[in-house]
UniProtKB/TrEMBL annotation:
It holds the Pfam family DAO. This is Sarcosine oxidase subunit beta. Its cofactor is FMN; FAD. Residues 22-66 form the Rhodanese domain. It comes from Thermopolyspora flexuosa. Belongs to the SoxB family. It is found in: Cytoplasm. Gene3D superfamilies: D-Amino Acid Oxidase, subunit A, domain 2, FAD/NAD(P)-binding domain. It catalyses: sarcosine + (6S)-5,6,7,8-tetrahydrofolate + O2 = (6R)-5,10-methylene-5,6,7,8-tetrahydrofolate + glycine + H2O2; sarcosine + O2 + H2O = formaldehyde + glycine + H2O2. It comes from the Bacteria. It is an enzyme of class 1 (oxidoreductase). Keywords: Cytoplasm, FAD, Flavoprotein, FMN, Nucleotide-binding, Oxidoreductase. PANTHER family: FAD-DEPENDENT OXIDOREDUCTASE DOMAIN-CONTAINING PROTEIN 1, SARCOSINE DEHYDROGENASE-RELATED.
């Protein structure tokens, strides 16, 4: 495996050509993975990824890197488990050390209803062939001794679900690995190229307008996360997406103290310790809509008090930095993947607070959808028309993030 993961030049920096078969808008994890699988799985290499900033400057390298597939509904379980299986071979396939670590993810339950819900989820996961266990409070203590399991706190721990195959990976390395692999297969990665509009004629997309000029395209694929609804509006499409800041923070570097991932819906915090040693913590979204990648201080304050309730041992750790990314939240907290009312304009969005874990699976099914002009079977339940048919896939309970 490649031992020097961050050389200066991992990909070319080409000038954009006048036209491509496929233009992907957005150079985050999903856009890059889609480009890679278009080339690798479908032999489609006349592809450009247009990124208005720099590759992985959006949510891809701002997230808290949690990977798991323990979603409730069959449709979600299928797509997230497809992604997890791809994660399990990804470092070898891309020849890049992604620091993928299947260290186990605990989802804590703090009330009788959360216990019931957690047990239901374990059973649903097992029926879908996904590894899942229910731990009582003694087992939680054994698995993660630094969690405060005292009964005398505001939200006492009553048990937890555990997915042992779940874990974390190093997000920016994942982006670089996909970018290098896509570049090697002939994909043009164009940074500093903002899509400002679409050329549409006869109900069909013909190309994009950018700050670098017009670029023709047979097919255009949106992968712009929190900015998707703004972009789609420029193509005359109104999407059921809300854009919110989602914040995270890291502590100073610590000795190894936490060797699993701990999430809590009720307390609203999720914590892991990165390979380098910093604690990585996320919270709930800022409630207002925004495109500013910062968020409000009071959210961080609440997040810290929640974290300290669960982990009193962190009381003297110092916060090193905080930031936010703009997440695209759909009404049922599930993604939107598929075709749009504009012919040959495709959408992959709405992953909200949980799309990092889906990166390989999302890229895989989106590439297939673009290549074949119809939703991949795993994407069929996630098309845009579910918001008119009412066939929603409500996964609000799946995240430790309130929205
Ligand atoms: C703080 C935080 C914590 C999170 N934690 C987790 C987690 O633990 N686990 C998990 O699974 N998920 C998590 N997520 C969610 C996850 O990061 C996202 O769902 C996922 O990264 C979105 O896909 P992406 O990587 O392609 O998005 P992005 O990296 O945001 O990519 C979209 C790209 O589109 C570009 N773009 C936008 N508009 C234009 C335009 N007009 N022209 C050209 N380019 C454009 C942007 O610059 C951006 O680079 C978290 C998100 C945040 C913010």
């Amino acid at each position: 495996m490649n031992e020097s993961p961050h050389p200066d030049f991992l990909w070319r920096t080409p000038e954009p050509r006048r036209a491509y078969d496929v233009v992907i808008v957005g150079g985050g994890g999903h856009g890059l993975a889609t480009a890679y699988y278009l080339a690798r799985n479908h032999g489609i290499t006349d592809v450009a990824v247009l990124e208005r900033g720099w590759l992985a400057g959006g949510n891809m390298a701002r997230n808290t890197t949690i990977i798991r597939s323990n979603y409730l509904w069959d449709e979600s379980a299928a797509i997230y488990e497809h992604a997890l299986k791809l994660w399990e071979g990804l470092a070898e396939e891309l020849d890049y050390d992604l620091l993928f670590s299947q260290r186990g993810v605990l989802n804590l339950a703090h009330s009788p209803s959360e216990v019931r819900e957690g047990m239901r989820r374990v059973n649903a996961n097992l029926l879908n062939g996904i590894d899942a266990e229910w731990l009582d409070v003694d087992e939680v203590r054994k698995f993660c001794p630094i969690v405060n399991t005292s009964p005398d706190v505001r939200h006492p721990v009553l048990g937890a679900t555990l997915q042992r195959r779940a874990g974390i990976a190093k997000h920016d390395r994942v982006a670089w690995a996909y970018a290098r692999a896509a570049d090697r297969l002939g994909v043009d990665l164009i940074q500093g190229c903002e899509v400002t509009g679409f050329d549409i004629a006869g109900g069909r997309v013909r190309g994009v307008r950018t700050n670098l000029g017009r670029i023709g395209a047979h097919r255009v694929a949106l992968a712009a996360a929190g900015h998707t609804s703004v972009l789609a509006a420029r193509a005359g499409i109104r999407l059921p997406l809300q854009s919110h800041p989602l914040q995270a923070l890291v502590s100073e570097l610590l000795e190894p103290v936490l060797d699993c991932v701990v999430m809590s819906n009720a307390v609203h915090v999720y914590v892991s310790q990165a390979h380098k040693g910093e604690l990585v913590m996320g919270a709930g979204i800022d409630a207002y809509n925004s495109y500013g990648q910062r968020g409000s201080f009071h959210i961080i304050e609440r997040q810290m008090s929640a974290a300290l309730e669960l982990f009193p041992i962190f009381a003297r750790a110092r916060v090193l930095r905080t930031w936010a990314g703009i997440v695209d939240v759909s009404p049922d907290a599930s993604p939107i993947i598929g075709l749009t009312p504009v012919e040959n304009l495709f959408i992959n969005a709405g992953w909200g607070t949980g799309g990092f874990k889906a990166t390989p699976g999302s890229g895989w099914v989106y590439a297939d959808t673009i290549a074949n002009g119809r939703p991949h079977p795993l994407a069929e339940p996630f098309t845009l028309d579910r918001f008119t048919t009412g066939a929603l896939i409500d996964e609000h309970g799946a995240a430790a993030v309130a929205h």
